[in-house]
Amino acid sequence: MRRRSLLCALAALAAAACAPDPPCGLRVCDIREADCQTMAAAAAACLRGVDPIAVPVTVVPQADFIAQAAARSMTSAQDESFRRWNAGLAALGLAPADNTASADSAASARQLGGVYSFTDKQITVIDGGEPLASLGWVGQLVHENEHAIQDARFGLCELYAGHATDLDRALAFAGMFEGEATLVEDLAGAGLFGLTAGDIPWPNVLERWQASARDRARASPRPVSLAWSHFGYPFGTGFVKGAFDVGGWAGADALFAAPPGGTREVMAGFGTLEPTGGPWAVDLGYDAVPILGDGYDYVGTDRLGAWLFEVFLTRLDDYYDKRNLPPLLRGDTLSIFQDRTTGGAVAVWRLRLSAASSSSYAFSQALSALPAARDETWTDDFIVVAASDTTTLNAVPFAPPYQAIPPAPASRPPALGANWDCALPAR
Amino acid sequence: MGRGAFILTVVALAAPAVTFAADAPAPLADDAPPTAEPAPVVEAPSAVEAPSVVVEPPVAETSPVRPPTPVTPVAPAATTAAPVAATATGPPGPRPKRETHGLALAAGLGIAYGFLGLQARYDVPVTRSVTVSPFVASGLAFGVLSGPVGVSTALGARHRFVVDLAVAPMDRMRFILHGTTVTDRSIFGPMLAAGYEHMSDGGWFQRTTIELGYATWTTAPVSVNSYPVIFGGLAFGRRIW
To answer: Is the minimum CB–CB distance between A201 and chain B shorter than 8 Å?
Structure first.
């Protein structure tokens, strides 16, 4: 009897030691090795149910990668455009006043563990000094290989150029293809740990991840430049997971044919209908850009969208409606000008909400947290007018006429990581 | 493009957390081993311990015997006086439990006890001074069926030098997905311990050991970068039969 008990205990131990095989031939290996890279490419394709794509993989020390990003050359026109755009964002509290394109690129580069270049068709793994033979790094390589598969199947640069016509749409598009790659990466990681997709508490994982992203964006000095990182992965993964749950991988494929139109749609979740039954994003048409007069140089206009509107509100102290207003944002335009007299920047952000949920008084009070800002209303739209300083702000005419978006002299050069080296349409 | 999305964290229960992941270094074999908790103080065995069973010879209460009057003179006998009732025999006491086969239960702290748990061992005296005891344990840290399982060898009688050899869980590997711990797995490895045990005649015992483990494998398919674990073991128990 005693012996039998002992044998039973030993058998239980032996059973517990049995581990299931990871799916698709996945294994933990050193991602610098060629057979490991081949395995990761094959596993990504296997998990996705498509043919594998072979792309070269290079490993670059993180310090070198960041230095290379910081040294990225820009024309003097691009540099000046960046400076002017940054001054406008800084007036809204969305960028450091002393930001530079080089610092912006370095900050983006620090966020990266790997890059798939849509133009060079190769993967770069950024080695931060950790051992590269780990579950996490194999997952990273699967992620990058999934981008190679997306690129081969859908032509990401062409899609990006067609859909990323403003920052809001660019973030939504990035969220879609980063979300799909992250979902494949997560399945690989779970498989390496002996788990399946069903073992993962997705609602908890996504909720916590998105909350963390909100916190990081709120605290970040560069919430616009790093929005691709803060927003794209957590919210994009949630959106693609929703499509996958409904239609499997075919459902995820369908997103490439009809990408989400903006961050508002992505944040609402896949399959959610716009509350009023209208489109998720509307064009402001002839209400887009204020005509400030001859004393101002027009720098450009962009749509920031619901994500950055939420980030903007959360950075204002004590604004009670910070989480309720962004889901109502149907359309917006942020126009940047430079005052020829003071040299200061003027940012005019027009926000069209689907329903009034907040008093203009509360909104006005919240804007007092900015050094030089005021609000205006035009029909049902909220308009934030911010400037580099109060002198510049006071010179901005009240209730100017508006027009459609005119051609911009130069678009804001995106930070590294925000355009994936694709040639983008000017915006 | 993506960042390390999931993190495997190995938390050494004995020591500072060791992490490994896409963005965290894996524990290296040559890493400093997780620091053991302060080694439990080795309690000095009491210098004098009253035996649980005392066998004392009964004192002979015999009256002096007068020598019989000789009827005939005899030569004096050899002057060898026979001792009178020098020893007396009483009922034999039970053998000390440590000298018999039997099951012992102990509660303890250390790798051999699942860090904090119960251990069942079966003492098999091979000689009067060598006892071999296969054991299994179940601790709070790793679950009921995770072990450890091993064998202990004791050299000595009441005061014993003990050596334990076991396979034991000694750490946990967590699967953390985007900041949420999804699940974890125990990391197992061989363990060698040496120390002191005192076992009374009645079967009560206490022991203290220094344990050296080598975290080597897990029940997840992912491999473990092996690393050592040092801990101190302390246990109290009794032979229950």
So the answer is: yes
Tell whether A343 is covered by a domain: yes
Residue A239 lies in a domain: yes
* DSSP H or E segment with residue B237: strand B227-239
CB contact under 8 A, A139 and B21: no
**b or e along B142-156 (b: 16 or more beta carbons within 10 Å of the residue's beta carbon)?**
beeebbbbbebbbeb
The fraction of chain B above a pLDDT of 90, given in percent, is 44
Question: Which DSSP state fits B24?
Answer: B
Q: In which band, very low, low, confident or very high, does the pLDDT at B90 lie, cut at 50, 70 and 90?
A: low
* Partner residue facing A22 (CB), from B2, B21, B221: B221
Question: Which domain covers residue A336, as residue numbers?
Answer: 285-403
Check whether residue A262 and residue A289 sit in a common domain. no
Predicted local distance difference test score (pLDDT) of residue A407:
78
Nearest to B1 among A27, A116, A234 (CB): A116
The reply to whether A87 and A231 lie within a common domain is yes
Residues in chain A where the model's pLDDT stays below 50: 1, 6-12, 15-16, 415-417, 425-427
Q: Which residues of B touch A16 (CB under 8 A)?
A: 145-146, 186, 219
A117 falls within a domain: yes
Question: Between residues 9 and 28 of chain A, which touch chain B (CB distance below 8 Å)?
Answer: 9-10, 12-13, 16-22, 27-28
Q: Indicate yes or no: CB of A229 within 8 angstroms of CB of B146.
A: no
pLDDT score at A410? 60
A residues 111-140 closer than 8 Å to B (CB): 111-116, 128-131, 133-137, 139-140
Global pTM reads: 0.78
Angle between helices A101-110 and A62-70 (to 10 degrees): 160
Kindly state whether A6 is in contact with chain B, defined as any CB-CB distance less than 8 angstroms.
yes
* CA distances to A226, A229, A326 from A426, in Å: 20, 22, 26
Residues A293 and A249 in one domain: no
Domain B96-170+187-239 classification at class level? mainly beta
Which two structure tokens, joined as six digits, stand for A252?
A: 């995820």
B221 vs A9, A113, A194: nearest CB: A194
Q: Which residues from chain B sit within 8 angstroms of residue A9, using beta carbons?
A: 136, 145, 149
Whether A258 and A364 map to the same domain: the answer is: no
The complex's ipTM works out to 0.87
Domain count for chain A, please give it: 2
Which pLDDT tens digit goes with each residue over A78-107?
888 889 999 999 999 999 999 998 998 899
Q: E-strand spans in A296-344?
A: 296-302, 329-339
The verdict on residue A164 lying in a domain is yes
Asked if A32 and A176 sit in the same domain, the reply is: yes
Instruction: Judge if A107 and A208 occupy the same domain.
Output: yes
A402 and A290 Cβ atoms separated by less than 8 Å: yes
Annotated domain spans of chain B: 96-170+187-239
